[in-house]
């Protein structure tokens, strides 16, 4: 199995969404005999469950009672202490370790059949001859088509032990049904979506989460850009919900001089652990711009805060999410786990950027709506700050704690009907479904296109757009052609590029005319004139 930004199996999508809740490298200090020693409170809970199990008049699934109890306990702690069921844990773990064992295809169920969007380059399926547009009908004796199959069930049938073989029955237009044997292998779940040169001197790297493999991916991309002549870097952390802290610290280390404080944590006993740069970084002199928005959280904020508080670079965008709590994952012994908040983290100036959560989890997670209502997403003047949470950087710049990283240069959210509609259609996969169908009609022709030919073509023309508008109307979605035509062409071509060539080309096309990137280019140009 592989991943696609818009068409990923449910279990991978669930894993991506869990980024905000992920913990750190810290070691829990309590000894096991202390943690699990018996006491009256624990015995009381155990006795109640036993009474229900053995004495209650009706048969009750006490496992479900325990799950409910665990969740209710955690709800009374903080929004980021969470329970992960055994069914969810495997997907979450695979996403954050950065790979899994599968056959190496990106797919989605189309007309009740697994339809291959593309194969992972160099992966098991590509080596076995699987191609984009193929339909996988069976895996060994398991049927993979029909209305009742769930996405996570489909994924499970294609996964297996490393180097194990699976016999697939595949349908391909023009060839019919045929059998192919695929040897399962490690399939990467990339956390670096794109890496390329914006100009002859400015490089761009987009990170979607912080997993075990993120630093390695980032370092490889950074080295390629440096060889290409980069002396300015744009680090895109928009919509990055966080993840493991260690990769964020290692990336920050690439930019900061030796003994520069990156962040520190403090637990309930007051113990402080500080993290410093080693001085071994390969980009300590070049200019850095970090892009953030209201969905940049956790490890993203640690990295952005380290850059801002050390006067190392410029933060561009909108106020970040505001998560300053550190979690550690702990097994509950039955295949489930709990991520428990064990400390708070602070930026180098001493800021806690954790937003308040005293009004309950619902209010906490709906805080975005409050930002929307008070106009913060459209105007920097609407961002509420407290003088009591004012801090100064070494160069005397004022920064604030109390709920996210406030950017140095604000860029308003596109609130037009066009922008919001197209972004929703992109995230939900609606655009991708139309593009897949269009590609599928002329698969042989499209597969022959080189990247250069694709970039220079007018493949997404007015007729292609009209086809999408008709596709939308048939599903009761009305779109004004005069409003949507030009931006829709960019979204359609970007999505087509992703299905044909991958996420790097997708981001390149989608980033054209991007407001935050345009601000970076303007600031860079102004600096050069001074």
TrEMBL record:
One GO term describing the cellular component: outer membrane-bounded periplasmic space
Pfam families for the chain: PDZ_2 (PF13180), Peptidase_S41 (PF03572)
InterPro entries linked: ClpP/crotonase-like_dom_sf, PDZ, PDZ_sf, Peptidase_S41A, Tail-specific_protease
CDD domains (UniProt xref): Peptidase_S41_CPP
Keyword Transport attached: no
Keywords: Hydrolase, Membrane, Protease, Serine protease, Transmembrane, Transmembrane helix
TM annotation in the entry: 7-28
Residue span, PDZ domain: 89-161
A GO molecular-function annotation: serine-type peptidase activity
GO BP terms: proteolysis; signal transduction
SMART domains the record matches: PDZ, TSPc
PANTHER family in UniProt: CARBOXY-TERMINAL PROCESSING PROTEASE CTPA (PTHR32060:SF30), TAIL-SPECIFIC PROTEASE (PTHR32060)
Stated family: Belongs to the peptidase S41A family.
Protein name: Carboxyl-terminal processing protease
Species per Swiss-Prot/TrEMBL record: Aquimarina intermedia
Source taxonomy: Bacteria, Pseudomonadati, Bacteroidota, Flavobacteriia, Flavobacteriales
């Amino acid at each position: 199995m592989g991943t696609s930004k818009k068409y990923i199996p449910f279990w991978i999508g669930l894993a991506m969404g869990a980024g905000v809740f992920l913990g750190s490298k810290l070691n829990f200090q309590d000894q096991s005999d202390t943690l699990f020693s018996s006491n009256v409170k624990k015995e009381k809970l155990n006795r109640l469950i036993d009474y229900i199990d053995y004495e209650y008049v009706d048969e009750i699934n006490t496992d479900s009672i325990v799950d409910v109890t665990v969740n209710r306990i955690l709800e009374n702690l903080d929004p980021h202490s969470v329970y992960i069921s055994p069914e969810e844990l495997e997907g979450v773990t695979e996403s954050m370790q950065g790979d899994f064992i599968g056959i190496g295809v990106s797919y989605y169920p189309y007309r009740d059949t697994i339809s291959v969007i593309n194969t992972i380059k160099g992966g098991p399926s590509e080596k076995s001859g699987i191609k984009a547009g193929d339909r996988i009908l069976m895996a060994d004796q398991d049927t993979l088509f029909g209305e009742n199959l769930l996405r996570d069930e489909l994924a499970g049938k294609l996964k297996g032990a490393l180097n194990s073989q699976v016999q697939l029955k595949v349908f391909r237009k023009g060839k019919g049904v045929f059998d192919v044997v695929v040897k399962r292998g490690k399939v990467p779940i990339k956390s670096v979506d794109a890496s390329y040169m914006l100009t002859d001197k400015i490089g761009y790297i987009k990170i979607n989460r912080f997993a075990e493999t993120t630093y390695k991916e980032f370092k490889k991309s950074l080295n390629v850009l440096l060889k290409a002549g980069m002396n300015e870097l744009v680090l895109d952390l928009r919509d990055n919900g966080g993840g493991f802290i260690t990769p964020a610290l290692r990336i920050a280390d690439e930019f900061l001089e030796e003994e520069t404080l990156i962040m520190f944590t403090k637990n309930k006993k007051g113990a402080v652990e500080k993290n410093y740069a080693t001085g071994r970084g390969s980009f300590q002199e070049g200019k850095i711009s970090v892009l953030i928005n209201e969905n940049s959280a956790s490890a993203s904020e640690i990295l952005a805060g380290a850059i801002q508080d050390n006067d190392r670079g410029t933060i561009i965008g909108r106020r970040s999410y505001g998560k300053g709590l550190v979690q550690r994952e702990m097994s509950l012994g039955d295949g489930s786990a709990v991520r428990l908040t064990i400390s708070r983290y602070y930026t180098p100036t001493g800021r806690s950027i954790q937003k308040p959560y005293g009004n309950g989890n619902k209010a906490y997670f709906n805080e975005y709506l409050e930002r929307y209502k008070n106009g913060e997403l459209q105007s920097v003047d609407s961002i509420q700050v407290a003088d009591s949470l004012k801090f100064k950087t070494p160069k005397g710049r004022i920064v604030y704690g109390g709920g996210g990283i406030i950017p140095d240069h604000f860029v308003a959210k596109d609130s037009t009907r066009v922008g919001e509609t197209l972004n929703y259609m992109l995230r939900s996969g609606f655009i991708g479904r139309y593009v897949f169908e269009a590609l599928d009609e002329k698969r042989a022709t499209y597969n022959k296109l080189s990247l250069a030919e694709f970039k220079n073509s007018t493949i997404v023309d007015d007729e292609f757009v009209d086809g999408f508008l008709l596709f939308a109307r048939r599903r009761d979605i009305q779109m004004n052609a005069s409003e949507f035509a030009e931006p829709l062409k960019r979204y359609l071509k970007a999505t087509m590029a992703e299905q044909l060539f991958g996420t790097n080309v997708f981001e390149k096309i989608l980033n054209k005319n991007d407001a935050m990137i345009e601000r970076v280019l303007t600031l860079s140009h102004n600096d050069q004139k001074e």
